[in-house]
Design goal:
The chain contains six helices and three strands. The chain is an alpha+beta fold.
Length: 102
């Protein structure tokens, strides 16, 4: 468990993985969907996920430069686990009808 949490246990990494999902996503889209994360922290977290073999970064030689992120097979295997955690939370911590889910 300790090694697992060291790999994906930060505040942002599971949310980044969930946000990318099964598609290729540009940095700006990830940042916009996540909302409150700073660009600096998002960049650092994506770099760590890439180093751990969970995220793949693809840079295109274009003007302006374009970069897309996607999950590797290793990263895709995390999606069902994150979905199970989300369902567990919804079951045990239902959001009041007047509040947004956490």
């Amino acid at each position: 468990m300790t090694r697992t949490m060291a790999t994906i246990g930060t505040k942002w990494k599971p949310i980044i993985i969930y946000t990318i999902g099964k598609k290729k996503v540009r940095f700006g889209i990830i940042h916009a969907k996540m909302g409150i994360i700073s660009k600096k922290v998002l960049t650092e977290q994506l770099k760590e996920l890439e180093e751990d073999g969970i995220v793949m970064r693809e840079a295109f030689n274009e003007v302006p430069p374009r970069v897309e992120y996607s999950l590797t097979q290793k990263g895709l295997e995390l999606l069902p686990i994150l979905n199970m955690l989300t369902r567990w939370n919804q079951k045990h911590n239902p959001a009041p009808s007047n509040q947004k889910p956490r």
